[in-house]
Specification:
36% helix; alpha/beta; binds magnesium ion; 265 residues; Rossmann fold; binds adenosine-5'-diphosphate; 6-stranded mixed beta sheet; 4-stranded antiparallel beta sheet
Length: 265
């Protein structure tokens, strides 16, 4: 059975995600102070930076899990419609939010698998209940995605019976089964022991090679260097430096980035 082939529709015309001048505050705390991010189709963008610099917030804003105060977000060229005022602005259209969110699948640090469902049920749940897809077709796809991430033999076990690396791979299969336009990863390897980290890194690298559009928040500089087309270094809610990985890691300009990189070696 053919899985959806991300590389097939690799037109670079309209970016999947385009964020400009995004401002986000929690009460008096301004966490994003005017941030831009463009995820071209088939490209991988990595977000790096110290803890608290706003990486997760930016990812959550992209996925419309968070409101914002100012700035634009375009999904495949389509602007998010906002309502409210400058201090409290929400996406206006629930249907638009649902459509965009189901097209941007998120993978979290803590896997967030449903513990009362088997691995197969975890992967099938959203395509069946949220997208209303045919159950038998979803099951076939779910099994294929689980095989693709190397745990095709774990369909009928509970999440607790898997290692962290296997659980995260199941979470990636679950994200893929939504057949999204982009995958958003928030520190996908941070909760894993080093030896399990690599099995997840391998899956992410395969997805990059396939031409999947991805935005990856990571503390793993080697992963960022290996898979990214573009790397963004956030510092206190602003982009301090960005560029292709060769430049960013090879000849960082800003002192903050130099310090950050030497601290993560
Ligand atoms: P990172 O992912 O880079 O570590 P975050 O985006 O999680 O950073 O957080 C950026 C800042 O926003 C931090 O100071 C954090 O404490 C704050 N923050 C994040 N989420 C919330 C929230 N729900 N309410 C209040 N402050 C928050
Ligand atoms: Mg974070």
């Amino acid at each position: 059975m053919p899985l959806d082939n991300a590389a097939q529709n690799s037109s670079t015309a309209t970016p999947v995600i385009q964020i400009s001048d995004l401002h986000k505050s929690y009460g008096a705390l301004e966490v994003l102070k005017g941030v831009d991010l463009v995820a071209e189709r088939g490209h991988v963008v990595s977000l790096i930076g110290s803890s608290g610099s706003g990486k997760s917030t930016l990812l959550r804003c992209a996925n419309l899990l968070e409101d914002s105060q100012q700035g634009e977000i375009l999904f495949e060229g389509e602007p998010i419609k906002w309502r409210g005022h400058a201090l409290h602005r929400h996406p206006a259209d629930r249907a638009q939010v649902t459509r965009i969110r189901t097209n941007l699948s998120m993978v979290f640090q803590q896997f967030n698998l449903w513990s009362h469902m088997t691995i197969l049920q975890n992967v099938m749940e959203a395509p069946v209940t949220v997208l209303g897809r045919n159950k038998a077709e979803v099951e076939e796809k779910a099994r294929a995605y689980l095989a693709k991430v190397g745990i095709g033999d774990k369909c009928d076990v509970w999440p607790a019976q898997l290692s962290g690396g296997q659980q995260q791979r199941a979470a990636i299969a679950r994200a893929l089964c939504m057949e999204p336009k982009a995958l958003l990863f928030d520190e996908p390897t941070s909760a894993l022991d080093p030896e399990l980290e690599q099995e997840v890194v391998r899956v992410i690298k395969d997805l990059a090679t396939e031409g999947r559009t991805m935005v990856i928040v990571t503390h793993d500089m080697r992963l960022a260097a290996d898979v990214s087309d573009h790397v963004i270094f956030l510092h206190q809610g602003l982009i301090e430096e960005e560029g292709p990985p060769e430049t960013l890691f090879g000849s960082p300009k800003s002192e903050r980035l130099q310090q950050f990189l030497s601290a993560t070696q």
